[in-house]
Design brief:
Keywords: Coiled coil, Membrane, Transmembrane, Transmembrane helix. This is Lipopolysaccharide biosynthesis. InterPro entries: Bact_polysacc_biosynth/exp. Strand 2 and strand 3 form a beta hairpin. Helix 6 packs antiparallel against helix 10, helix 7 runs antiparallel to helix 10 and helix 8 packs antiparallel against helix 9. The chain has a four-stranded antiparallel beta sheet. The chain is rod-shaped, with a radius of gyration of 64 Å. The protein contains 14 helices and four strands. It has 511 residues and is α+β, with helices and mostly antiparallel strands.
Length: 511
Amino acid sequence: MNLDLSFYFAIFLRRLHYFIVIFALVTAASVAAALLLPPVYSSSALLLLEGSRIPDALAAPTVQAAAMEKFQTVENRLMTRANLIDIARRNQVFENVETMSPDQTADAMRGNTRINKSTGRGEATTMWIEFQGESGEIAAAVVGDYVQFILDYDLASRTASAESTLEFFENEVNRLDAELDRMSARILDFQQKNADALPSTLTFRLGQQTLLQGRLATIENDIATLKDQKARMIAIFQSTGQISNATTAGQTPEAQQLDALRSQLSDMLAVFAPSNPKVRVLQQKIAQLEEVVKAQLPGDGSANQAATMLDVQLADLDTRIALAEEQRAKLIDELAVLQDTIDRTPANQVVLDALVRDQANIQQQYDAAVARRSQAAAGERIQVLEQGERISLVETPTVPDGPVSPNRTLIVAGGMLAGIVLGIAVIVLLEVLNRSVRRPKDLIDKFGITPIVTIPYIRTPSETMRRRSGFAAVLLVAIVGIPAIIYAVHIYYQPLDAIFAKVAEKLGLSL
């Protein structure tokens, strides 16, 4: 493909005014922007999260948080709307800060602030804070306020956390102590109300029950013996007219034999049934001897004396029987009361075990709370003395020697380069869109004829003057008007840096 460079150069010269106008417009705009953009000064500070100076094995800290989480919390507190507005107005960060709305002030402060956090395995956790302001003093003052806020908030949060932890465990110890007192009072009240049926005395009461049961059996045997003695005495008197305590010396041989047979009958009845032949034979002998003994009884005087002695002895036996029965009744009542306490002991054991178990649980919680209170007191002391984990300032903010932006030379050079590229692009676009016949080759291609000679368009002097006047006017507008419009926008509408920041934010760029 053959390129007619002379033709394209001629076209460029013919459309040079477009190039000059576009180049002038873009260059003038870049020069105006470079001159009108205010200088930006940057100041920064470096913060470090220091570990505890006291080993955890000696005193475990009560204020614990992940390093990055701690810095994120601090950043969120720092970037609150109220705090940013207060710092901006206190340092007069913006010229029109008093007339700016709170939202505009907060957004502008956030836009001029850069915060970078860094951490990693085996690496220190740091926070780098930068602020860009209209002057070095303002930027340094804002970063200083940022750093002071972070340090104050860190100290206040650590101290408040340690104090609240200590206060919580102190309240917990007091609560558990009161709960222990109440539980001890409940146990004591229960033991007093059930003193007769406590599990601790069950063995003693069981032994006492066995002893009383033995005594009751003895007394019942005594009562039975006394009643049997009384019945035998009455039977002897009725059969012999004598009492059992009379001496055998005054008895006849038949009476002595009768007593022996009666004693033998009593022994046999304990072994044999009344229908046994031996028992019947013995009863017949006793009946015969009773008839003989009755015939041998003395006169009425002796009989009256025996009856009187019988009454005396029977009265004595009745007294002894009544006393024994009274003792038996008391023993029965005592056994009933004792049995009732024994029956109530298992239920009391369950209740008392539950109370003691609750008391043991509360005691365990109380001991743990006391230990944790001691640990919290040590942690609170560590925070007061600033021996625990804390944020420290490594690099203080300083007033910068010069602005960091804008780079005016780069802006002007970029504008000039953009003007050149845009001017050439416009000329190329106009040439692509132009389909008119301008050279002999076009005649040959379109009409198939070969011209002998071609005559170019010749402008009159007046056309040339008008063309040059229009070009000069456009060029004057580009050189003077564009900067004037940019200046007016910067002064009366919105600063250029704010406009650029919004455009960059819309495009997702970081200036």
